[in-house]
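task queued by scheduler; priority normal; single chain, no ligands, no partner chains; default sampling; output format set to structure tokens
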Amino acid sequence: MVNANCQHLLPEEMLFRTANNGDEPGSRRKIGRSLNSDQGSERKLRDRLMETERMALALEVSTKCGLETSGVFAAWGLALLRAGDWSSAREKFSHCLQKLKDSGNSSAESPLLKEIIENLEKSRYPGISKAAAVFCAIGSLKSIKDPSFEVKVPINELKGVVYSECKHYLELYGSHRSMLAFLYRHGRTTQALEYYLSKGCEVELFIEELLQPSLKQGTLDALLSSLRQMDTSLNRWWPTLLAICRSLQKRGRMHTLYAVQLFMEDYLRAAVTSIQFFERPPASGYSELHQRLAHLADARKHLETFLSKYTTWDGHRAKSTGTQVLAMSPKEVNRNVSMVNMQIDITRFLNARETEQEKLLLPRQKDSADGVAPTLFGDMAMKRDLACLVLVNGRNVEEGFGLAFRIIQENHLDGAVVFERAAQTLVSAGAVSQVERLVRCIQSCGYPDRYDTDAVVLAALQELVRSQDDKKDLDLLVKCLKKDVNKVEAYMLAGRLKTAYLLAVRQNRIDHVKRIMALAEAAGQESVRAICAKRLQGAGTPPQ
């Protein structure tokens, strides 16, 4: 250390030990043993030597004192790198960097590699051997300030040299992630894609190192174009593209997902995404949905494009070798086209009624979520609510019946449930006369035996009894009943027990007379109870 004129760098404790040893024979050996017994001061010495960029001495101290040498080689390599002696830097880094056993494991990559790449990318001149001579001659790279040491080269040539040097380190010591990020960062998109395929990289690397940067930079179209240039059929890219779609959907990047689906010519999935644009966020009214009808038009176009493009079938899958586009039979696709067209008609109809009425009449006992306008793309409960909504919001029942009946038929809904709920809704809104019109519509729908109109009327009667006891409205509903026994039931339900008794006697319905007597007794209608008891005695049936 003295011969190297570095005694001023020695920590005080080392100077003290050296002074005590004096010129005794074997003093050098004694110092070595002392160093090995307590390495704190030796580390300080090594670090000071590294700070002043006396790397050879720092390495010698580390070697003789049993200290780790990788840190010295790393610092030495970085110093040479900054000075421009890239060739010597390579040699130094070879002592402290190791090739990854698994290039797919980026967590095992040395942080030093990132620092090397960053330094190279900031370089203003290419690596030269002259810098090494300067480094050795003056002993400190901090003294290199003379611009004459820089070698001026054209910027494009410099970029090429830097690119090659960075690639050398990444190929030797880097992970797939670092290589992909580097290639894409430097505009080598095609090389990045070729590397991704040739190395069999994980799809997540494509998403994180290629897709996400392209989204931030607004260059997704260019990235997708590069995929097609490499493989016009996209067969090699399908697993990656499908994974990209799943990732985008998970992250809620629906517009980007839509663009990728169209790029893939995956028209059915693009149609589904268009429908999601129509439905989300959930709308509270049909004026809002009416403003989104363009998305349904897009969905219809994609469905029709699919039909025209994929005309050869094998079961339910389109014969398109290598691709995994979502496929359906023509019958299924046509059914979906019909559903989209129907939803367009429904939205226009309800938007017009909402605009005219300011507020739609909502079905009683609504099954679907409150505050959300039901559509055909929901579950069965939502579809039932929608059919009922259409049915009760026309200027009259006839106006909405045709569209509501289409909803019932094409979605295989239980029409009886829809009609009964609609009847109750009309009664609760004070439109009892519309129930009669509803019954006529059901009877003339072409399926007269499919639906029990008496059940619809009785449901309306139950609602009428809950809300009021208007004799005129009650009689109007009773007239809609076809079966006499149901008329008896209707008057019993309404508490019109005397009228019910007279009808029951006329029809010779002893069981109903018994029930009427029980109701009269419970209601305190003694006169009705008495005539029922008399009738039962006359019929030879004792009252119970």
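post-processing summary
- The chain has a mean pLDDT of 84.
- The longest strand covers residues 313-314.
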